Amino acid sequence: MKAPYFSLPDQDGKDHTLDDYKGKWLILFFYPKDNTPGCTKEVCSFRDISHELQEKNIFIVGISKDSVSSHKKFYDKHSLSFPLLSDQSISIIKSYGSWGIKKFMGREFEGIMRNTFLINPEGEIVKQYEKVNPLFHSNDILSDIKEIIK
Questions:
Q1: Tens digits of per-residue pLDDT, 34-59?
Q2: Which of 3, 39, 58, 112 is catalytic?
Q3: Is 44 a catalytic residue?
């Protein structure tokens, strides 16, 4: 399946597009909110494996609906090494099927689903991870990458 196109600003206001990653593997992850416990664990686990992935020409990009300025604070606070893109309109989030009904403490609401997509150098989604556990997710991806990318 072809990955939906995106063009969004990062934590520094620089636009990133899907085309920027042509010829490279891309881990595109959607997360609910900057500076929350689960999201912090998830981005820090990606940070901790990012250099290993970049050596294999695999890049990481995170997307949430937080503002560019919120992303900048989050990025700097946790010394991240990959872009965090701001989708305040939630149009890209929806195009990846990462917006939906969530449940928390007995109530339902709409929000960002914690989903990740592994996109090949041709721009095709080769693996989708839904409702991931932020504690183990990066290790799951590393295991899969060893199987998929040889």
A1: 988 888 898 999 999 888 888 888 99
A2: 39
A3: no
Domain boundaries, the chain: 22-148
Q: Does domain 22-148 have CATH number 1.25.40.20?
A: no
Q: How far is residue 85's CA from residue 148's CA, in Å, rounded to a whole number?
A: 26
| pTM listed for this prediction | 0.92
Express each pLDDT in 50-91 by its tens digit.
Answer: 888 888 889 999 999 999 999 999 999 999 999 999 999 999
Residue 70 tokens read as 């919120």
